[in-house]
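User: I'm putting together notes for a lab meeting next week and I want to include a structural view of one of the chains we've been expressing. I don't have a solved structure, so I'd like a prediction I can at least talk through. The sequence is below, exactly as it appears in our construct file.
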Amino acid sequence: MQGPSRAAAAASREAFTGVLAAGADRSRLAEELFAVVGVIDGSATLRRAVADPSREGADKAQLAERLFAGKVSAEALVVLKGAFGHRWSSERDLTDTLESYAVEAVIAQAEADGRADRVEDELFRFERIVAADAALRSALADTQAPAEKRADLVSSLLLGKVAPETLVLARQAVVAPRGLRFDRVLEKYLETASSRREQQTAVVTSAVPLTDDDRARLAAGLAAIYGGTVHVNTVVDPRVMGGVKVEIGDELIDGTVIRKLDAARRAMGA
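Assistant: Thanks for the context. Below is the predicted structure for the 270-residue chain, given as C-alpha coordinates.
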Protein backbone atom coordinates (compact mmCIF):
# COMPACT_ATOMS: atom_id res chain seq x y z
CA MET A 1 0.00 0.00 0.00
CA GLN A 2 1.11 3.54 -0.68
CA GLY A 3 1.17 6.23 2.00
CA PRO A 4 -2.48 7.38 1.92
CA SER A 5 -3.77 3.81 2.05
CA ARG A 6 -1.45 2.89 4.90
CA ALA A 7 -2.73 5.87 6.87
CA ALA A 8 -6.35 5.04 5.99
CA ALA A 9 -5.91 1.40 7.04
CA ALA A 10 -4.41 2.45 10.38
CA ALA A 11 -7.19 4.96 11.02
CA SER A 12 -10.04 2.69 9.96
CA ARG A 13 -8.68 -0.10 12.12
CA GLU A 14 -9.72 1.84 15.21
CA ALA A 15 -13.37 1.42 14.25
CA PHE A 16 -12.90 -2.30 13.63
CA THR A 17 -11.05 -3.03 16.87
CA GLY A 18 -13.57 -0.89 18.72
CA VAL A 19 -16.56 -2.97 17.65
CA LEU A 20 -14.71 -6.20 18.47
CA ALA A 21 -13.84 -4.91 21.92
CA ALA A 22 -17.47 -3.89 22.45
CA GLY A 23 -18.58 -7.49 21.96
CA ALA A 24 -19.80 -7.56 18.37
CA ASP A 25 -21.03 -10.87 17.00
CA ARG A 26 -17.81 -11.77 15.21
CA SER A 27 -19.25 -14.40 12.93
CA ARG A 28 -21.99 -12.08 11.74
CA LEU A 29 -19.54 -9.19 11.34
CA ALA A 30 -17.29 -11.34 9.16
CA GLU A 31 -20.19 -12.51 7.01
CA GLU A 32 -21.41 -8.95 6.47
CA LEU A 33 -17.97 -7.55 5.63
CA PHE A 34 -17.32 -10.34 3.15
CA ALA A 35 -20.69 -9.59 1.56
CA VAL A 36 -19.96 -5.85 1.30
CA VAL A 37 -16.61 -6.56 -0.35
CA GLY A 38 -18.48 -8.66 -2.90
CA VAL A 39 -20.96 -5.84 -3.54
CA ILE A 40 -18.17 -3.29 -4.04
CA ASP A 41 -16.16 -5.63 -6.27
CA GLY A 42 -19.22 -6.17 -8.43
CA SER A 43 -19.85 -2.47 -9.15
CA ALA A 44 -17.28 -0.27 -10.86
CA THR A 45 -19.39 2.81 -10.10
CA LEU A 46 -19.50 1.99 -6.39
CA ARG A 47 -15.77 1.22 -6.29
CA ARG A 48 -14.98 4.62 -7.73
CA ALA A 49 -17.40 6.37 -5.40
CA VAL A 50 -16.09 4.88 -2.15
CA ALA A 51 -12.42 5.31 -3.05
CA ASP A 52 -12.62 8.68 -4.83
CA PRO A 53 -9.80 10.77 -3.27
CA SER A 54 -11.49 14.02 -4.35
CA ARG A 55 -14.59 13.38 -2.20
CA GLU A 56 -14.67 14.46 1.40
CA GLY A 57 -14.40 11.73 3.97
CA ALA A 58 -17.63 12.77 5.64
CA ASP A 59 -19.44 12.52 2.31
CA LYS A 60 -18.16 8.99 1.73
CA ALA A 61 -19.10 7.98 5.28
CA GLN A 62 -22.62 9.25 4.57
CA LEU A 63 -22.60 7.16 1.39
CA ALA A 64 -21.93 4.08 3.52
CA GLU A 65 -24.87 5.06 5.70
CA ARG A 66 -27.20 5.46 2.72
CA LEU A 67 -26.13 2.22 1.08
CA PHE A 68 -25.92 -0.14 4.03
CA ALA A 69 -27.94 1.20 6.97
CA GLY A 70 -30.61 -1.36 7.79
CA LYS A 71 -28.93 -3.99 5.61
CA VAL A 72 -26.02 -4.80 7.92
CA SER A 73 -25.61 -4.71 11.68
CA ALA A 74 -24.84 -1.47 13.48
CA GLU A 75 -21.34 -2.78 14.21
CA ALA A 76 -20.62 -3.53 10.54
CA LEU A 77 -21.89 -0.08 9.60
CA VAL A 78 -19.45 1.50 12.06
CA VAL A 79 -16.59 -0.38 10.38
CA LEU A 80 -17.76 0.59 6.89
CA LYS A 81 -18.12 4.27 7.75
CA GLY A 82 -14.72 4.19 9.36
CA ALA A 83 -13.19 2.74 6.20
CA PHE A 84 -15.12 4.78 3.64
CA GLY A 85 -14.37 8.01 5.47
CA HIS A 86 -10.64 7.98 4.67
CA ARG A 87 -8.54 8.57 1.59
CA TRP A 88 -7.26 5.46 -0.20
CA SER A 89 -4.57 5.24 -2.87
CA SER A 90 -6.61 2.70 -4.83
CA GLU A 91 -10.01 1.04 -4.83
CA ARG A 92 -8.37 -2.35 -4.24
CA ASP A 93 -6.66 -1.14 -1.06
CA LEU A 94 -10.03 -0.32 0.48
CA THR A 95 -11.64 -3.65 -0.34
CA ASP A 96 -8.51 -5.60 0.61
CA THR A 97 -8.60 -3.92 4.01
CA LEU A 98 -12.29 -4.71 4.53
CA GLU A 99 -11.63 -8.32 3.51
CA SER A 100 -8.78 -8.55 6.02
CA TYR A 101 -11.12 -7.28 8.75
CA ALA A 102 -13.62 -10.01 7.82
CA VAL A 103 -10.90 -12.68 8.07
CA GLU A 104 -9.70 -11.23 11.36
CA ALA A 105 -13.23 -11.34 12.76
CA VAL A 106 -13.35 -15.06 11.94
CA ILE A 107 -9.99 -15.60 13.66
CA ALA A 108 -11.18 -13.55 16.64
CA GLN A 109 -14.12 -15.92 17.01
CA ALA A 110 -11.74 -18.88 16.89
CA GLU A 111 -9.59 -17.23 19.55
CA ALA A 112 -12.60 -16.72 21.79
CA ASP A 113 -13.39 -20.43 21.52
CA GLY A 114 -9.78 -21.51 22.04
CA ARG A 115 -9.18 -22.98 18.59
CA ALA A 116 -7.16 -20.36 16.70
CA ASP A 117 -4.10 -22.65 16.44
CA ARG A 118 -6.33 -25.41 15.11
CA VAL A 119 -7.77 -23.13 12.44
CA GLU A 120 -4.31 -22.09 11.25
CA ASP A 121 -3.17 -25.72 11.11
CA GLU A 122 -6.27 -26.83 9.22
CA LEU A 123 -6.10 -24.04 6.63
CA PHE A 124 -2.44 -24.76 6.02
CA ARG A 125 -3.03 -28.50 5.64
CA PHE A 126 -6.01 -27.99 3.33
CA GLU A 127 -3.98 -25.71 1.09
CA ARG A 128 -1.31 -28.41 0.85
CA ILE A 129 -3.89 -31.09 0.06
CA VAL A 130 -5.33 -28.97 -2.75
CA ALA A 131 -1.87 -28.15 -4.10
CA ALA A 132 -1.03 -31.86 -4.33
CA ASP A 133 -4.25 -32.86 -6.12
CA ALA A 134 -4.46 -31.47 -9.65
CA ALA A 135 -8.08 -32.56 -10.16
CA LEU A 136 -9.24 -30.96 -6.93
CA ARG A 137 -7.24 -27.82 -7.64
CA SER A 138 -8.87 -27.50 -11.06
CA ALA A 139 -12.35 -28.08 -9.65
CA LEU A 140 -11.94 -25.38 -7.01
CA ALA A 141 -10.49 -22.92 -9.53
CA ASP A 142 -13.13 -23.54 -12.21
CA THR A 143 -14.78 -20.16 -12.57
CA GLN A 144 -17.20 -21.61 -15.12
CA ALA A 145 -18.79 -23.63 -12.33
CA PRO A 146 -21.24 -21.82 -10.01
CA ALA A 147 -19.53 -20.47 -6.90
CA GLU A 148 -21.99 -22.30 -4.67
CA LYS A 149 -21.11 -25.60 -6.32
CA ARG A 150 -17.43 -25.02 -5.56
CA ALA A 151 -18.30 -24.06 -2.00
CA ASP A 152 -20.36 -27.23 -1.64
CA LEU A 153 -17.35 -29.25 -2.78
CA VAL A 154 -15.31 -27.69 0.03
CA SER A 155 -18.07 -28.49 2.51
CA SER A 156 -18.22 -32.11 1.35
CA LEU A 157 -14.50 -32.41 2.07
CA LEU A 158 -14.32 -30.53 5.37
CA LEU A 159 -17.71 -30.44 7.11
CA GLY A 160 -17.51 -32.18 10.46
CA LYS A 161 -13.74 -32.61 10.14
CA VAL A 162 -12.50 -29.08 10.82
CA ALA A 163 -13.33 -26.12 13.04
CA PRO A 164 -16.31 -24.01 11.90
CA GLU A 165 -14.00 -21.06 11.24
CA THR A 166 -11.80 -23.18 8.97
CA LEU A 167 -14.83 -24.14 6.90
CA VAL A 168 -15.98 -20.51 6.66
CA LEU A 169 -12.61 -19.33 5.37
CA ALA A 170 -12.06 -22.26 3.02
CA ARG A 171 -15.49 -21.73 1.45
CA GLN A 172 -14.88 -17.99 1.17
CA ALA A 173 -11.58 -18.62 -0.59
CA VAL A 174 -13.33 -20.50 -3.42
CA VAL A 175 -16.47 -18.36 -3.55
CA ALA A 176 -14.60 -15.04 -3.77
CA PRO A 177 -10.92 -15.49 -4.67
CA ARG A 178 -10.92 -11.93 -6.04
CA GLY A 179 -8.61 -12.74 -8.93
CA LEU A 180 -6.12 -14.77 -6.90
CA ARG A 181 -5.24 -18.45 -6.95
CA PHE A 182 -6.74 -20.54 -4.16
CA ASP A 183 -3.35 -21.11 -2.51
CA ARG A 184 -2.58 -17.40 -2.48
CA VAL A 185 -5.97 -16.58 -0.95
CA LEU A 186 -5.36 -18.99 1.92
CA GLU A 187 -1.82 -17.62 2.34
CA LYS A 188 -3.30 -14.14 2.74
CA TYR A 189 -5.79 -15.41 5.29
CA LEU A 190 -2.98 -17.07 7.25
CA GLU A 191 -0.91 -13.89 7.09
CA THR A 192 -3.86 -11.99 8.56
CA ALA A 193 -4.16 -14.58 11.34
CA SER A 194 -0.45 -14.32 12.17
CA SER A 195 -0.60 -10.54 12.18
CA ARG A 196 -3.61 -10.49 14.49
CA ARG A 197 -1.97 -12.93 16.86
CA GLU A 198 1.35 -11.06 16.69
CA GLN A 199 3.28 -14.17 15.78
CA GLN A 200 5.53 -15.48 13.06
CA THR A 201 4.83 -18.69 11.18
CA ALA A 202 7.43 -21.32 10.40
CA VAL A 203 6.95 -24.09 7.83
CA VAL A 204 8.90 -27.16 8.91
CA THR A 205 9.49 -30.01 6.45
CA SER A 206 10.55 -33.43 7.78
CA ALA A 207 10.74 -37.00 6.51
CA VAL A 208 8.33 -38.28 9.18
CA PRO A 209 5.50 -36.60 11.10
CA LEU A 210 6.60 -34.52 14.09
CA THR A 211 5.06 -35.19 17.49
CA ASP A 212 3.35 -32.45 19.46
CA ASP A 213 6.42 -32.34 21.71
CA ASP A 214 8.67 -31.95 18.66
CA ARG A 215 6.58 -29.04 17.42
CA ALA A 216 6.57 -27.40 20.85
CA ARG A 217 10.36 -27.67 21.13
CA LEU A 218 10.84 -26.28 17.63
CA ALA A 219 8.45 -23.39 18.31
CA ALA A 220 10.28 -22.57 21.55
CA GLY A 221 13.68 -22.73 19.88
CA LEU A 222 12.62 -20.55 16.97
CA ALA A 223 10.98 -18.06 19.33
CA ALA A 224 14.27 -17.80 21.22
CA ILE A 225 16.06 -16.99 17.95
CA TYR A 226 13.52 -14.72 16.29
CA GLY A 227 11.67 -13.32 19.30
CA GLY A 228 7.93 -13.28 19.98
CA THR A 229 5.70 -16.28 19.34
CA VAL A 230 6.26 -18.73 16.49
CA HIS A 231 3.51 -20.99 15.14
CA VAL A 232 4.84 -24.14 13.47
CA ASN A 233 3.16 -25.67 10.40
CA THR A 234 4.51 -29.06 9.37
CA VAL A 235 4.98 -30.77 6.01
CA VAL A 236 5.94 -34.44 5.64
CA ASP A 237 8.18 -35.17 2.65
CA PRO A 238 10.02 -38.53 2.62
CA ARG A 239 12.44 -37.17 0.03
CA VAL A 240 14.30 -35.17 2.69
CA MET A 241 15.35 -38.54 4.20
CA GLY A 242 16.13 -37.10 7.64
CA GLY A 243 16.57 -33.86 9.55
CA VAL A 244 14.31 -30.86 9.05
CA LYS A 245 13.98 -27.83 6.81
CA VAL A 246 12.63 -24.65 8.39
CA GLU A 247 11.23 -21.71 6.43
CA ILE A 248 10.42 -18.62 8.47
CA GLY A 249 9.88 -15.25 6.87
CA ASP A 250 12.49 -14.87 4.12
CA GLU A 251 14.93 -17.25 5.79
CA LEU A 252 15.59 -20.92 5.09
CA ILE A 253 17.34 -23.24 7.52
CA ASP A 254 17.97 -26.53 5.71
CA GLY A 255 19.29 -29.30 7.95
CA THR A 256 17.97 -32.18 5.88
CA VAL A 257 20.00 -35.21 4.85
CA ILE A 258 19.21 -34.62 1.19
CA ARG A 259 20.74 -31.13 1.38
CA LYS A 260 23.89 -32.53 2.93
CA LEU A 261 24.11 -35.21 0.24
CA ASP A 262 23.65 -32.60 -2.46
CA ALA A 263 26.40 -30.52 -0.91
CA ALA A 264 28.69 -33.58 -0.82
CA ARG A 265 27.98 -34.33 -4.48
CA ARG A 266 28.81 -30.77 -5.46
CA ALA A 267 32.04 -30.93 -3.48
CA MET A 268 33.07 -34.20 -5.13
CA GLY A 269 32.34 -32.81 -8.54
CA ALA A 270 34.29 -29.61 -7.94
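A couple of points you could mention at the meeting. The chain has a mean pLDDT of 90. The chain has three domains: 3-112, 116-195, 198-269.

User: Perfect, that's what I needed.
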